[in-house]
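User: For documentation purposes, I need each entry recorded in a consistent format: the amino acid sequence on its own, followed directly by the corresponding C-alpha cells. There are two entries in this batch. Please keep commentary to a minimum and don't merge the entries.

Assistant: Recorded as requested. Entry 1:
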Amino acid sequence: MTRRSLDQTLDFIQRVDRAATYEEVCAALLEIARRYGITNLLAGTMPPPGANRSVQLGHVVLDHWPEEWARRYFSHGYLFVDPAIRRCREARTPFLWSELGEETAEDPSARRVMNEAGDFGLRAGLTVPLATLEGEFAGVSFAGDRVEIDPRTRGMLTLLATYALGRGLQLRASGAARLRPSLSPREREALQYAAEGKTQSETADLMRISEHGVDKHIRTAKQKLGTRTRTHAVAEAIRLGLVE
C-alpha cells in the first residue's frame, strides 16, 4: 500500500469519525464510491421474516436511496423477495447484483424487484454482507445506473462500508440516548402517513393541506431528526417512538 493510498484511507476514517449526522456519513462514503459509478446506497440490519413496514424501516441505518423507490419497496414487502437480501443472509463475501442470476431465474417476484429498481436508476450494484458481534445480519448496498467494480474495488468498498455502518450504528445508539426532538403535531402526522406508505399527494388529501405544505412539514422533521431522506426520517422517528 502506498503512503498516498493510506492517507486517503485515514482521511476517510477521520471524516466518518467526525460525522455528526447520517447524511455526513453517506456523503463521505459516496464521495469515494462515485468513482465507480455508484450514486446511491442503503445500509441497515436485517429485520425478522414477516416484519411489518414500520419494523422494516426501523432497521434502516444509512439511506441515500431514491425516495419513491424506497416507498414502493417497503410498502410492497419487496424486502422479503429481494434476491440481494436473500443472498445477504447467507453470503460472507460481497457480491454484484449481476451475480444473482440463480436467485432470479425461476422467481418472478425477485425479477420484478430487480427490474423495478432499474427504473429508478439502480440497474447495477454491489451488496456487502456484514454481521454484528451480537449475531445480527446486516448489509450495505451500493448501486447506480452503471457500476464498474473489480475484485480489488470490492475489498476496498467492504472496508469503507464496514466502517460507515459502524458509525451509523453509533449515531443511532447516541440518538436513542438523547432527548427526543420536539416535532410538531403536523410534522408527526406527516411522518406517520409516510410510515404507512402514503404518497405525498395522498398525505396532502388526508391532512387537508397542499403537497407543498406536506413537503414543508417533512423537510422540517428531517432537519430536526438529522436525516436527509423521507425514508430515513421515518426510520429515525419509529426508533424514537415518535410514530408507529
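Entry 2:
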Amino acid sequence: MFGGTVRGGRPVVTLTIVALCVVSWVLQLVTGGEWTQRWAFAPSVGLDQPWRFLTAAFLHSTSILHILFNMYALWLTGPFLEQAFGRGRFVALYVLSAIGGSVGYLLLATPTIDGGWNTAVVGASGAVFGLFGAIIPVLRRTGRSAAQILVLIAINMAIPFFVGGIAWQAHLGGLAVGLAMGAGFAFAPREWQALVGWLLPLGVAVVLVAATLWKYASVGWL
C-alpha cells in the first residue's frame, strides 16, 4: 500500500536494532562508562564529532528500566512499520528520527555549557518517538483510529515534567521527524511512492543538517 516490498518472516531490521542496543548496553556496563563517553551525544562535542548525533541512540542509562522500556516500545511499533514501509524506508525513518532527537536537544537545550550543552544524552527514545509519530499518518491512511497512540505520546511527553533526567527535547525532535516522514510515506500518490522513498529521507537529512549548522552558527561556534 505504501510502496514497500512485502516480506514474510521475522522483522530483520527491528531485531538488528534491538540486538545493537543490547550489545551496546552490555559494553557500557563492562567498560565502566568508557563506551558511553565515546559515543554519547552532547551539543558541545557534536560539531567536532557529528557521528554522535546517531550513536547516542544505541546507548542507554545503566538502569535496566531505560533500555527495557525503549526496546519494548520498539518491538511494539517496529515490526508493524517495517512491514508497512519496507526495510529501506524503515531504516531511513529510524536513523533520521534518532538523529532528529539529537538535533531537537541541540536546538532546544540552553546554549551554554552549564545550561545543557555539556550534558550528555543517551537513549533510543528520540527514534522511538519517531516511530510513534510515523504510526499516526499510517493509521489515518488505513482508516483506523490513532487515539491510543496519541494518548501514549501525550503521557510520555508529560513524564519529563514529573521525572528528572529525561531529555524531552530529544523526544520532540524525534516525534517531528517521524510525523513528517510517516505522512510523506503514507500519503504519497502511488506513482510517486518510489521517488518519495528516496527524496523524502534526503530532504529531511538536509533540513536536519541545516538546522544543526544554523544553531551552531547562531551561538558563534561556526
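Summary note for entry 2:
The first helix runs from residue 12 to 30.
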